[in-house]
Structure prediction request, 314 residues.
Amino acid sequence: MTHRESHQWHIPGDQVTRYAEGTLPDPDAWSLEKHVEDCATCASRVSAAVRGTAAGTVLAAVRTAVLESAPGAVAAAEPVAGRAGGTSAPEALLPGRPPAGGRPVSSRLARLLWAAGPAVRGAWLPAVLGVAVAALAMSYGAGFPGARALLLAIAPVVPVAGVTLSYGPHADPLHEVTAATPGGGLRLALTRTVAVLAVSLPLLTLTGLLLPASGAPAAVAWLLPGLALALASLALASFVGCRAAAGVTGGGWLCAVLAPVAVAPGGAATLRLAEQLSRCLDGVAAQSAWAAAAVLSATLLTARRPAYDRPLRP
Prediction:
């Protein structure tokens, strides 16, 4: 539905009432929430209906507390009704929220930056740059011949770390609220995963291309493993939480590639790492196995989507 089409109809009164009472089915509620983002008339009707319920007093108190604690960030925000007496906080609390109807560019940019998470803000991007610069410095500054092998060993864990740092109670102060909104939950987790991959994949791959091979696999050999591990972390997080999932997937990968190096003679560690990476990454069989793992993880993640409608463990 286009922006123009969204204003050619309005939400029926019975749906507004059922939404405020929390009895509207999920698909209808999600459609309603999407509609009120662009329709000021319906947004006002829904907000009034929600304020008239028992949850209205709680909502008003929460909004007042948020406005008082961060007036500069949310002064322009309009009260927006949420699911079953909740609040659509990610939509309502962003700076630049217009009072009705139109969406200025600044508001869209703010939403994009919020959704992208640490891939475009915070310390994560400098950390990825640091990994790339360190690999180049080791190779061309210190003359270390195994820089590409070491980078390929670490690279698949970088997206896992980025996804873990970008989603969950530790990353969002309003995680419990965002998980219950249409733009939150798995949709938000996938948005931030794409942002993490969009930064780490080209940056680390380009760095690998600039490094001497020295017996290590190709610089692009880590792409499928990185994707598979990131998806596996998201799927596993629905069971055990974000940090535990990252520990299992990222730690498992590091153990698999670094364990043989730990028992190698002193001068053969670099060669042993390159050989182990070749077994894990090189060839059609290895890459096909990683592709299958990515598909399996995506399938499991799809099946576990309802778990993301609730707050995850840290």
About this structure: The mean pLDDT is 79. The CA atoms of residues 169 and 201 lie 26 Å apart. Residues 185-210 form the longest helix (26 residues).
